[in-house]
Design a protein that fits this description.
The structure holds two protein chains of two kinds.
Chain A lengths: L17 H23 L5 E2 H27 L9 H4 L11 H12 L3 H9 L4 H28 L6 H8 L2 H30 L3 H24 L4 H19 L2 H4 L9 H17 L6 H26 L2 E2 L7 H4 L9 H9 L6 H7 L13 H24 L3 H8 L2 H4 L3 H11 L5 H10 L12 H16 L4 H36 L11 H24 L4 H30 L7 H23 L7 H13 L10 H42 L24 H17 L6
Antiparallel strand pairs in A: 1-2
Helix pairs in contact in A: 1-2, 2-6, 2-17, 4-17, 5-17, 6-15, 6-16, 6-17, 6-25, 6-26, 7-8, 7-25, 8-12, 8-23, 8-24, 8-25, 8-28, 9-10, 9-13, 9-23, 10-13, 10-23, 12-23, 12-24, 13-22, 13-23, 15-25, 15-26, 16-25, 17-22, 18-20, 20-21, 22-23, 23-24, 24-25, 25-26, 25-28, 26-28, 27-28
Chain B lengths: L1 H19 L2 H13 L6 H14 L7
Classes of the chains: A mainly alpha, B mainly alpha.
Chain lengths: 729, 62
Amino acid sequence: MATSTTSRTLSPKPGRTPRSMLVWGLVAAVGAVCWVVLALSRGEEVSALWVLFAALSSYAIAYRFYARFIAYRVLKVDDTRATPAERLENGVDYDVTDRRVLFGHHFAAIAGAGPLVGPVLAAQMGYLPGTIWIIVGVIFAGAVQDMVVLFFSMRRDGKSLGQMVREEIGLVGGIAALVAVFAIMIIILAVLALVVVNSLAESPWGVFSIGLTIPIALFMGFYLRTIRPGRVLEVTVIGVALLLLAIIGGGYVEQFGLSDALTLSPETLTVALVIYGFIASILPVWMLLTPRDYLSTFMKVGVIVLLSVGLVIARPMLENEAVTDFATNGTGPVFAGKIFPFVFITIACGALSGFHALISSGTTPKMVAKESQVQMIGYGAMLMESFVAISALIAASVIDQGLYFAINSPAGATGGDPATAAEFVRTLGFTISPSDLTSAAASVEEQTLISRTGGAPTLAFGISLIFAEAFGGGLAAFWYHFAIMFEALFILTAVDAGTRVGRFMLQDSIGNVWPKYADISWKPASWSASAVVVGLWGYMLYVGVTDPLGGINQLFPLFGISNQLLAAIALTLCVTLFLKHGLTKYVWVPGIALAWDLTTTMTASWQKVFSSDPKIGYFEQRSTFQGSIDDGKVLAPATTIDQMQQIVFNSTLNGVLQAVFALLTLIVLGSAIPIWVRAVRAGGVPTTEVPHHTSELVAPSDFFATAEEKAAVREWEESRRLSGTGGRR
Amino acid sequence: MRERVARAGRGVRWYLRQVTGEAKWDEYVDRCEREATTPTSRREFERHRSEHRETSPSSRCC
């Protein structure tokens, strides 16, 4: 029932009033001053707030001008077009959702441990390279990818990335993309699990609190299932309170006499995590996954809010240098390689994340109420993710740099002992005394902080410094374990959810040849598929945990590159669709992102496979160690021939995986290029876009509704009330 | 001032109920009322929703 109001398109231009020009001029000035300070400060103390405000003002300008330009001028979002949520509404998958609520859902789905870990590791090259890439990368690549994929998927009834590649690029590309997505997911799960293992190993407090999250989540699950169904808010309040008690209780493990029982080795934790991962992924979602998801989302948002408030109150100084020597000589202990391309690979998710393309083409496009909302949901949520990355970078940069390198260098280098670690740090050109190392660990009530790689302990230590300074009370140990808890919690949720997604993908693929296997309620299929997925990431996790060269050091580049290669696949799809739609004039929008992403990832892949530096090239590493084995010599950091053989095996495995990921991406790109040529010649070719259906719905576009939009919504609701259709559901 | 705080409080509550999906039940009851049908029990309704979640896993990202 179309009424006169339903076909109106709300004006995309809010108009240039003197007031708005003044406000934006001010934002631009603040941003410019912050950038100038960051650019010119060398060798003097710099406040973290310059970084924070450089980021915030850049985001604001990018959102207001660039994102808006892409939405209205390039993609030409059309609010007279009904979205899939409106046309196909079934209250389940397709569900018109308030834009602010959907923003929350989308952000919760894209945000994880990646933007927290990557910047921490990248801090070894100084705070400046990371800051620049996180901000510039998100504006021109990451947020663009998320928004454009969301838009194209929304125009195709919410098709997945794999489906779109298959239909728009071709079968070969589609299969390559599917295999890449599955393999990359396994690596991501393994690396995330490795971060958890490294933060909980030899930490009875951490094991105690994280262990208790399982009964807490189970309790919440049963509460929602049987005691008071659906009362999510009250059970989450109870859950968060119990969680805080679990963190506080962890401080008393020694008094409880559990200290020895809960001091677990990385190997034990790996086994525990694999068993847990398998059980968690076959349990009904209401028992564990759903309640833990509520907890981790609330914890995450809470920490982000606390961290930004804490930063503003504490106003910490950056201890890190702007650019360290490791940026140019590539010999840093945290990860090997020079600033180009490795800083881009390491930052990964905070600036550009291929994984987001899966979310932007999954549940989110089926819930968008109005086309113009892709700007706030796609672009906006990614800016927030980038802000998380900036906060993590700051947290890692306010730590004493001697301590930073003692925490993040692999055990093979530091020797694991305060005296040897202090000596190793001295050889890097930093100073920290053995007693400072011991007292730093004691300040957060950990047995040791030496070689606690993986980023989480560093971040937690930085957060505890900032919070203890901002909120007082001498609670450093509590805040440290609070931060560890929050990271571990949502990594576990990601591992559980990821295992399920992997299992569904596997069942679906095998279902193509054996239809019964695709039946998700058939236990033999779902259990065996879960076992395969858990087995795969568990195996990679074990490889990482036992790697004599340091698992994070070896696996994180693989994780970063594979994530960025997935982004290359998503951006290839975006470029293809731009050309097919005849948007050749604007193809630079996804084009610059794709070109830069391909440059960094292909250089990194090339170096990881072919570099003659054994610290970088997996195969060179392999032949160096194999050569020594043949000579019967043991090469540091290995201490036995067994470890030597392990290194040879791991390097080969990592090198092969690396090469396969790069090849899969090139296959997708290679099958897309002929289509690009054809589309440009023809000035556009048909795509699978769903034709225009007139929208009857009225909803605002942006976070804050304008007076005009509010009036339009009121008028529309009034007309629906009169015509008896009632409010939306 | 008090009016404003109360409004903000209601806004936050509305948002949290929406985000967690708690408000789905209210919407369902409203719809049943409009369509003059009898709603099922809340227990049944929530079971139905969790069964749906079982078959459509949403990925949590890195």
